[in-house]
């Protein structure tokens, strides 16, 4: 700033007397050399500064290609600093030449002389020059803050600033199992089973808020922090802020004791500042029964709960968000289209440093009626005859409106919001009312307000009694198709606006019948697929299925919960939450009795790829997502003899934040074993809800490998952990020496990967013992032994002769 002022001062001093001034052009290419079909940034302009932020030099860029032909970029304006940049992609190998030409101009009573740069060689080669290496998506458990250099992680780090249109919440990796990261009491009131014999039975539960006094109705996720209300009684509320990925409480009872209404993340890009700001917003005034009251927005810092600024006299209307996160509202009336923009209401007319967002709002009380044009940055005429109400808005693209009549049919019109074409008519189409409407079987009131599902591509009208959708194009305004009648129980749904949604080119319906229907917007209206949320034990009294309620859509998946309008007690057991493949309806996971939703409180939400849900069975808040695992591995401490077998053993454990709580540690003093995805729903009931240990639970696979004494990689074998998390493998080494062992759990939908290592030794076999050699016989023994033998033989012979003679004598 100081440099610009010191340069601008002498320029302003020369305006009184005209001068002829030299100019100093510049050109630079980054990178240079560059690979063919790889972008290079051409920095161009003059070193001469200008006086005001809106001014710039007009130059030309002439590019001479390797074949001698030229390409000229005319009317290339610079910033007030004198320079600017533009990307250029060369398509041929060889040497390009880039030159900047300034034709001269009279500016502020001074004549700036023409000039041109030398021709800058731009070397284009076959191989691409290296760019900053992309960083992989996380392969282990991660937390906030995310380093802003990890740009690809934006796909995992969505927020839930308010209930999104059609419940579509992208930029998350949708959890593919019911694995729990942590659980904590909702607060304010106890939950779960009463016990004893109160109210005539011991099997009753604490109140859940259904109906009409719902708990956990207000909740948001802003940059990885979960905010929700703890209801003690309907009029007493406590706001808590929880780290979504760790379960740690950050603060409570801030916001000057008020309840947040929605969140905002605003990306601000101006001459002197580029970055995002996040807020929790408390709205007071306006609203039902107070339409004459001035609406006030109070903005608070989400990390600390401290007040930042106020905005007063905010106009009424539905809040939308534009491409940078500004809060915008629309009016179509009296032949005009108006867009009110919260950012414009703050910054309009400001320049230089004052246009930087932070310094413009902190500590301010901004009355929008005193701002330029009252904060309206679009105010244009529209074609005559446009009537009816606004149906849906997609800022920067289009606004769709119209009317529904039982006899006159459906009128739809679209107006452009594209910059430079604001208010231009895109279509104006009226379709005849369906025969069923004209016959009187369906009334507008029976359609529960009419439009129940909206997207840029199409919108759907719902008829409660015939249980049908009528779908219309939001690109042409024309009728597309009618769906067949759904299950009769869907006629009882009193909240169709949250039961019918459009996501990724498909219309979804999930309601009282417990059947999820999917219709392709490009199809003929017949269901593409259906899913029945069956109740195998007959606990649900509505039908053979569980009442279904769409929670949200993300990452190609549908997440569905179950609830009742006016909950019975004892509560029906086993109510499911489940996840479906949005394309074909395949069941990805289902958890029966783990997370029962609330009709009058609130549905589960998602942010940072973690689901936050309140369960009405025990009045706790749960975080559901992929968690960390930890491993151990051991081998014999003493070396074994070559030829002997040894046992390698270890464990794979769940290291999620919830497993570190006191109540879990008391039950699992040695840690919580990691289990397979297929076993996860039942295993979580056991770990977090004290159900019986599932005998069919299966552990996780482990690969056991080693580097042998010859530095060769050897796969020793595979194992699966058991109910205590232990695995083991018997192995017979094939060579002696020193082994380094690696045990690896490759991860799953429930856990990130982990590994551990150990060592063992194998001793050389001892040398074989030689057979003993016979000692030579001494000479004395050589003669003595035969002699003795001869004497013995002689005695025997003499004895035999004497015996013979005696026998003859007797005879």
Could you please describe the fold and organization of this structure?
With 811 residues, this protein is mainly β. It contains seven helices and 54 strands. Strands 3, 5, 6, 8, 11 and 12 form a six-stranded mixed sheet that branches. A five-stranded mixed sheet has the order 18-19-20-21-25. A five-stranded mixed sheet has the order 47-54-53-50-51, with no helix packed on it. Mean pLDDT is 89; it is low at 1-16 and 782-811.
Radius of gyration: 40 Å
Helix content: under 10%
Largest pleated sheet: 6 strands, mixed
Total tally of structural domains: 3
What integer is the average pLDDT? 89
CATH structural architecture of the largest domain: 7 Propeller
Unreliable stretches covering 5 or more consecutive residues: 1-16, 782-811
End-to-end Cα distance? 156 Å
Features:
disordered C terminus, Methylamine Dehydrogenase, Chain H, 39% strand, 5-stranded mixed β-sheet, 811 residues, 6-stranded mixed β-sheet, disordered N terminus, Immunoglobulin-like, 3 domains, mainly beta, 54 strands
